[in-house]
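Lecture notes, continued. The same structure-token format from the folding unit now serves as the input rather than the output. Read the line below as a description of shape only.
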């Protein structure tokens, strides 16, 4: 049984009781009767993570499926402002993070979030993390059907399961409505891509994917899972991870190592066996998936178009459009989030913001007569939210300035590169059309393995001195059955990174074929040639 809402989800009935238990843990820790390691294991399950500064914490708020109703956006903005948070951070997992919090302030903040219908449960630690979904779900002209309800129902099921906490490591799930795979379902522990068979809504199911140490593209485990069985598939994979995940070696504790060790066929057989067991037991409910409207798919995936002085994405209802907002590096002030919520109330038929894996915000279902007014209001709020800059097509983790495991300051590196690129004289379509993904360490929070250009921060010893650098990979891309990781090409000291990127961008601009993406360009160029261009001084 559940109560209270989290977007379109219901929060568990015991959410308040769990929070009360955690408040006791905080008090015990502060009194010295709960050791730091045990306390860390408990607080991370509430999305409370260390920052680089001692005694300072980050709080991650779940946004199921990236669906952020305007009332929830206002609540986050207000609580952040009251807590002295200067900037909110949008994550590549469609969550919202508050930085710079003291431990004393967090229990009260969690209470206020819960009262507003928001939760941080499972937003960190060894737990089922936020369930991602395509930000255009429900309005995309290419989708088979709207995957949003399925992402929300799976969230609701998993966060109420005690077995979703205390897993070997984090467990990620994603839903995409078409093979473009905007949510990167084929690159997660468990992914669903909408399809249909004989007029029935179904999903292609992927498993054992993930990025980080030894990134892996997921295996296609089923071509046709009836949509009504989504919760059963989620429970089956959760059990596999719970039973087979490595609890002795944290570096190999992710589900992808289970799949890698077993091999595709054995992993598929294991999943199908667990799915049958879950279905036969009859304890996990079926969803009403058969009544989903199946849409005819378009021949081309939606793309940005010039609209009302900005860029927008036409929806399946051609009278409406989605307007993307680009907070630089995924950061915006609490007051800015509050104003964007007000704009969605005024100009969108949905009264909802959609967060993206690229750290953007979509205001969807905007009518033509409202576009000019919306664009003017957003421009007055912050011109950088709309004006094309090289950072628009970058995904960047928080980096070493905040994140304790971080090696390099990925955000500062991105800023330095953006400044250099803006003054490089390169064509606008090149600057804005190449997807760059930056991670401050190999943990891949910036999704660098699938970047057309991927940058991974590292350090190494040179003449007994620590030197910070970025390993550059080229040619990555996402997409169901077409995803691939970039090829590691060169390692460049951080000071030389802007000039290296300018050289590779210029090479692409001069040598590309008409309409050729950077990913396709990089895949056909000689590797030694690309390495030489990047490594020049």
């Amino acid at each position: 049984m559940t109560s209270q809402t989290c977007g379109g989800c219901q929060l568990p009935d015991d959410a308040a009781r769990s929070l009360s238990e955690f408040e006791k843990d905080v008090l015990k820790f502060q009194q010295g009767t709960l050791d730091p390691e045990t306390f860390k294991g408990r607080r991370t399950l509430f999305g409370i993570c260390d920052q680089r500064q001692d005694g300072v914490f980050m709080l991650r708020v779940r946004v199921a499926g990236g669906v952020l109703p305007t009332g929830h956006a206002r609540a986050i903005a207000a609580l952040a402002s009251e807590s002295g948070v200067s900037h909110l951070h949008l994550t590549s997992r469609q969550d919202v993070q508050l930085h710079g919090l003291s431990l004393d302030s967090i229990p009260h903040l969690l209470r206020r979030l819960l009262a507003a219908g928001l939760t941080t449960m499972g937003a960190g630690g060894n737990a089922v993390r936020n369930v991602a979904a395509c930000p255009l779900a429900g309005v995309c002209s290419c989708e088979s059907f709207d995957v949003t309800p399925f992402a929300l129902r799976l969230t609701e099921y998993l966060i109420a399961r005690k077995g979703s906490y205390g897993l070997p490591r984090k467990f990620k799930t994603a839903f995409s409505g078409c093979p473009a795979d905007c949510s990167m379902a084929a690159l997660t522990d468990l992914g669903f891509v909408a399809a249909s068979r004989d007029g029935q809504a179904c999903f292609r199911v992927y498993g054992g994917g993930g990025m980080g140490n030894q990134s892996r593209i997921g295996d296609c485990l089923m071509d046709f899972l009836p949509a009504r069985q989504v919760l059963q598939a989620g429970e089956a994979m959760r059990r596999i991870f719970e039973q087979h995940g490595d609890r002795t070696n944290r570096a190999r504790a992710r589900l992808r190592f289970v799949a890698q060790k077993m091999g595709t066929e054995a992993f598929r057989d294991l999943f199908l066996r667990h799915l049958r067991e879950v279905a036969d037991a009859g304890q996990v409910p079926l969803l009403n998936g058969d009544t989903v409207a199946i849409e005819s798919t378009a021949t081309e995936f939606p793309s940005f178009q010039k609209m009302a002085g900005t860029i927008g994405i036409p929806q399946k209802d051609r009278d409406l459009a989605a307007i993307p907002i680009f907070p630089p590096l995924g950061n915006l002030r609490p007051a800015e989030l509050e104003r964007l919520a007000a704009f969605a109330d005024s100009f969108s038929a949905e009264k909802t913001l959609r967060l993206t894996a690229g750290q953007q915000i979509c205001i969807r279902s905007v009518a033509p007569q409202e576009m000019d007014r919306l664009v003017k209001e957003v421009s007055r709020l912050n011109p950088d939210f709309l004006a094309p800059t090289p950072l628009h097509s970058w995904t960047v983790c928080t980096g070493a300035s905040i994140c304790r495991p971080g090696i390099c300051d990925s955000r500062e590196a991105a800023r330095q590169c953006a400044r250099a690129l803006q003054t490089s004289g390169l064509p606008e379509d090149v600057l804005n059309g190449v997807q760059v993904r930056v991670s401050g360490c190999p943990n891949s929070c910036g999704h660098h393995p699938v970047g057309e250009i991927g940058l991974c921060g590292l350090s190494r010893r040179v003449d007994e001195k620590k030197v910070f650098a970025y390993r550059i990979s080229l040619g990555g891309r996402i997409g169901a059955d077409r995803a691939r990781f970039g090829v590691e090409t060169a390692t460049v000291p951080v000071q030389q990174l802007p000039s290296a990127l300018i050289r590779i961008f210029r090479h692409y601009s001069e040598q590309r074929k008409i309409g050729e993406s950077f990913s396709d360009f990089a895949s056909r160029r000689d590797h030694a040639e690309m390495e030489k261009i990047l490594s020049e001084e």
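Point for the exam: The mean pLDDT is 93.
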